[in-house]
């Protein structure tokens, strides 16, 4: 047993720090005396040393060492061609079997480049591996890189190759569905496995559910997932619950979304996936203390995921600390450039700080990553409206309406833009009536309809609309708007009650507080003119003044530049 064998054993045993030291010393010896180790032994030392460096998260250094190992491997190939073995053929074959795989080394290099965000270099390395020699994990990495680079055809081909080798690779299935491959086509790839293995009949339904999700058909996705979740064998599955919670969120059903997230959290206290959306919803609903606790708990689980940073950013945003929210969103993007919630957080922070053009870039990237999430489009439309780009906003709203169909959400988005143009007020009213006919409890549509009624000074009609909605659910914005309407009809006592209820639901709701203080100062209100503002509902509560954020701007801007996320 020689020294290389000992190094190999330590590497296999996971003694990375030990391997790093001994391999470094041995490589120096080899440099000073090239005859000390054979080319194959030097190749092994370089790979084991690179593995130890990779384990220490020194990815640029590791990539360099792996590339040195590949150069050394070329020397071995040349030597074997020049000096064919006569008597030592068997020994050479055994030695070759012990050598680290060249393909695995290339995969490691690509992994380093991916972590360093050098995606083009990673793709180039993996494409250098012949197709027949690509393992499922190589095809999976290639597929994800192609998808990120917008090379959809290549991504589809790679995902299909993963499924050909591993038919139960469910993340590859999701990847294909996200690239608009039909659910039936994806299901056909896995059909043989479903039919040959018992208790896998649910998989075809699972595929159908995710096909609905990526097709933007949220209601059918909810119904399909619920049918799966009710099956005894899949009941209380955390992944299904998180997926269901996310679809409820996409459908605008905040109550059920929060309920399912909480159910998943109870089953798995260490759950991270989806908690950024849950934290955002809780912050939007005004439960900032709970959001702070949630963020702290997730940081204790892992600070290397985007979710805890997004949650803390949401807490800062709804506390009107926009510079800090911007920094936290940038940190989350640094950890996971595909985090839609982090992009949205940074986008709304930039928008509220008046940096609209930068915000637009982030919303567009979020749209690219999640083309069926309407909140991405809403953020972009808000930016267009903030910069008086009504034509661009109208074009975007019409495109959503045509692409995703006439549901309550798309109708409300289109109506929101129509409300900005005096010439399209009647069209806005028609669209909102259609939205409320489909979903009478859809809060964003109710808010916009109440806004329109306020403009028309139809206060009694507005009061009736808000009372009917509040009979089935309680919401801060609706209670505050009802208070505004009641002031308009001189019902001050009940208006005060409604403001109080709104503040109990969200103690940070500045507009309810202002309404209450105004009533207290003016014992005899004289006019019934009311200004209703539902923008915070449409933009998920993001609109607000910038007071309290300027004092932090320089500090957090500096930190944001440090992370290179401007």
Short note summarizing the structure:
73% of the residues lie in helices and 0% in strands.
Can you put this structure into words, describing what you see?
With 566 residues, the chain is mainly alpha-helical. Helices cover 73% and strands 0% of the residues. It has helices at residues 3-12, 16-32, 39-55, 59-82, 89-98, 102-115, 119-127, 136-148, 152-165, 170-178, 183-196, 202-214, 218-229, 238-250, 254-267, 275-284, 288-301, 306-318, 322-335, 340-352, 356-369, 374-386, 390-404, 408-418, 425-438, 443-455, 459-470, 476-488, 492-505, 510-521, 535-538, 550-562. Helix 11 (183-196) packs antiparallel against helix 12 and helix 29 packs antiparallel against helix 30. It is elongated, with a radius of gyration of 29 Å. Mean pLDDT is 87; it is low at 85-94, 525-529 and 534-566.
Radius of gyration: 29 Å
- Mean pLDDT, nearest integer? 87
- The number of strands is 0
The first-to-last residue Cα distance is 55 Å
Low-pLDDT runs of 5+ residues are 85-94, 525-529, 534-566
Strand coverage percent: under 5%
Estimated helix fraction: over 70%
- Which structural class fits the helix and strand makeup? mainly alpha
- Largest β sheet strand count, sense and barrel closure: none
Shape: elongated
**Count of alpha and pi helical runs:** 32
